[in-house]
Here is the input.
Amino acid sequence: MLDKIERTYASERSKTIGELQNKIWDEPGLQNEELYFLQVLAGDLNFYEPVERDRDAALGYYDDDKLSELIGTALKKVESFLAA
Here is the structure.
């Protein structure tokens, strides 16, 4: 689902992010110390704002570039977790 966020059009991305957040927060199997980075990611995703005029960087809101960075980092951690 992480890679789906990047493939989704910006107009639909917030919906996809919400689905991922709900999955992370509601799935008991994801509620452990090894996967805590997913909880952090879910919280960080609240600050994604695709519309530049609505984005207040002073409050921590970020753009598509930062979103791609967060998703890339999370994908690497998931791959590492699965390989262990």
In short: The CA atoms of residues 13 and 70 lie 14 Å apart. The longest helix spans residues 64-83.
